[in-house]
Design goal:
The protein is α/β, with parallel strands linked by helices. It has twelve helices and eleven strands. The two termini are 35 Å apart.
Length: 334
């Protein structure tokens, strides 16, 4: 049987890197990476983009494992179409701030004969969020994400949508702003585990033309997640339980910027209409063999250093006073 070819765009971010690494580890697909030509502008959801040297090292490592790196102008179809010839599945791992960069990809994918497109939708179930009662900057982004799915369908491409819930590394700066009473089960997916699970979902026959909402790291409540953190830290984790009205008031007071964009997620998660779930545990049913990074390993090895670095960056930028903690969370907001 001929192996399918998967091409990844946005491969040097957290999820994209983990996706390519997992594709290589699995060995089920031929793997290609679309790299931006040198000098083309790049957007990131948070923090500076990777340096050119970092990218070159990563590309060299992947190439040594048989990954084909294609450096192209990703802003138009002229170079994208030939670059995508032979691709069966095209996976986009661009950050939410670069959502619009997927439009030329969709057109080029159609012209190149690509079979399936996996858009960057690794947060909430945007099909529901686009109809949320409160109009926020995040809902506007959700509407664009849902529109992109319509464009994919219009292009005659198959699709796989992989909502992944909340990325925990962005929500645990103390005092932790808990959404609601902390008892509802939530899909938690670190950026790394999002990338790791993509090839597994893509390989499953039920993922064709389907929305597959995963909990790539854990499916548990806020309180359960924080209990594990407290056990590992050996102390209480400071937290505030905020209801819908409190999240909405904080959102309205926050000036425009990334923090406001993320506060919109708190509004979203606390005022949800009944029956319109934002997440689920698709992998618990269809991918029981997939295991997210164990929390006992994840907290000390990744989340705590990430939270410390986030705090330092916010203080350095002036977004967070040195002696006062942030009221709301910071997030990648994919």
């Amino acid at each position: 049987m001929t192996r399918k070819t998967v091409t990844v765009f946005g491969a040097t971010g957290t999820a994209g890197t983990a996706c390519v690494d997992e594709l290589v580890r699995q060995g089920h697909f031929n793997v290609q990476v679309l790299a931006r030509k040198s000098g083309q502008p790049e957007k990131t959801s948070m923090g500076p983009p990777h340096s050119a040297d970092e990218k070159r090292r990563r590309y060299a490592q992947w190439s040594s494992h048989g990954v084909v790196i294609k450096s192209v102008d990703v802003t138009g179809h002229a170079e994208l179409i030939p670059a995508l010839h032979g691709t069966d599945y095209l996976v986009s791992c661009v950050p939410y701030s670069a959502t619009e960069s997927q439009y030329p990809l969709i057109f080029a994918a159609r012209e190149a004969g690509v079979e399936r497109f996996v858009p960057s939708e690794f947060g909430a179930i945007y099909e529901f969020e686009q109809f949320w009662p409160t109009d926020t900057v995040h809902r506007a982004m959700a509407r664009q994400k849902a529109f992109i799915r319509r464009v994919i369908e219009l292009a005659g491409l198959d699709f796989t949508i992989i909502p992944a819930g909340l990325w925990p590394e962005y929500y645990l700066l103390e005092p932790v702003a808990v959404m609601g009473d902390g008892e509802q089960k939530v899909s938690w997916s670190t950026g790394r585990d999002v990338g790791r699970i993509i090839p597994h979902v893509l390989a499953h026959p039920l993922s064709r033309n389907a929305i597959c909402p995963v909990a790539a790291t854990a499916y548990c409540s806020w309180n359960e997640l924080l209990a594990v953190r407290e056990q590992l830290l050996g102390r209480k984790v400071a937290r505030n339980y905020l209801g819908a009205a409190q999240w909405k008031a904080a959102y309205e007071l926050q000036p425009p910027g990334p923090i406001k964009e993320i506060m919109a997620i708190g509004v979203l998660c606390t005022e949800g209409p009944e029956g319109m779930s934002l997440w689920a545990n698709w992998n618990g049913t269809f991918l029981p063999e997939f295991k997210g990074t164990p929390l006992a390993e994840l907290f000390p090895g990744y989340i705590e250093p990430f939270v410390a670095a986030t705090r330092a960056a916010l203080i350095a930028s002036g977004a967070l006073p040195a002696r006062r903690s942030l009221v709301g969370p910071m997030s990648a907001g994919v």
